[in-house]
Amino acid sequence: MIYLCIPNNPTGTTLTREQLKVWVDYANRIGAVILYDAAYEAYITQEEVPHSIYEIEGARTCAIEFRSFSKKAGFTGVRLGFTVVPKDLKCGDVALHSLWARRHGTKFNGAPYIEQRAGEAVYSEEGHKQVMEQVAYYKKNARVIYDGLKEAGYSVFGGVNSPYVWLKTDGMDSWEFFDYLLEKAHVVGTPGSGFGPSGEGYFRLTGFGTYENTVKAVERMKRLK
Ligand SMILES: *Cc1c(COP(=O)(O)O)cnc(C)c1O
Asked: I need a surface site. Which of 53, 59, 83, 156 has the fewest CB within 10 A?
């Protein structure tokens, strides 16, 4: 099993179609299944970044894609998502689609009706418009963080196809930087080490705030440099 979250939480980075094709070819070659977490798909800005793994030839025989409404439409807490298991995806002679259908039909009672109606509204013309305006607002915040901190001399990543900005804590570990930022700038973020050992020495900032507070936080962080 290979888990890919793209655009990525926490780093905000992406893969181009060519780069994702390398993963698809690899999975098909060795018989692995890619679990493709597209929770941040709505935040994609750049043309060369695919919105679904099924844009890549060969993905139907190796990839399961799942989508949450949490980041696209503010369903965090409400909780709704869907999973695509292509019928072409097999393990030996066993189709994973039929295993998933059996599992889901037996153990899951379905999402509450009110949530299904809310999910449906996301795809209406007006709902889509509202949701994408909200996404654009958060993306703008991320861009403000990215541009402002870069200009101030921080090493930053993401912020373009993602609501998150990932930064290097230069000389401090993630939690030291957390305390430093809290005490000196009254700004909070997420220590990278919380995402696993490779996140040590990094820090995640989020665009999921108001524009006014985002600008204020960036100004305070600039003053620390
Ligand atoms: C927020 C998020 C999700 C969505 O989870 P829900 O349980 O649907 O709220 C999925 N994957 C990643 C990487 C996330 O950050």
From this structure: 83
Indicate which residue's Cα is closest to atom 8 of ligand 1.
68
Query: What are 27-51's pLDDT values in tens digits?
Result: 999 999 999 999 999 999 999 999 9
User: Per the structure, how many domains does the chain have?
Assistant: 2
Helices 113-122 and 125-151 cross at an angle (nearest 10°) of 70
CATH assignment at residue 131: 3.90.1150.10
Co-location of 96 and 20 in the same domain:
yes
Task: Using the 3D structure, point to which of 123, 147, 169 is the last residue of a domain.
Answer: 123
Pocket of ligand 1 contains residue 83 by CB under 6 Å? no
Give distance in angstroms: CA of 183 to centre of ligand 1.
Answer: 30
Position in ligand 1 atom list of the atom nearest CA 66: 10
Distance 5 CA to ligand 1 centre (A): 10
- CB of 68 within 6 A of ligand 1: the answer is yes
Beta bridge partners of 206: 164
Q: Are strands 63-68 and 34-37 parallel, antiparallel or unpaired?
A: parallel
For the record, the structure tokens of 85 come out as 């298991």
Q: What is the pLDDT of residues 151-179, one digit of tens each?
A: 999 999 999 999 999 999 999 999 999 99
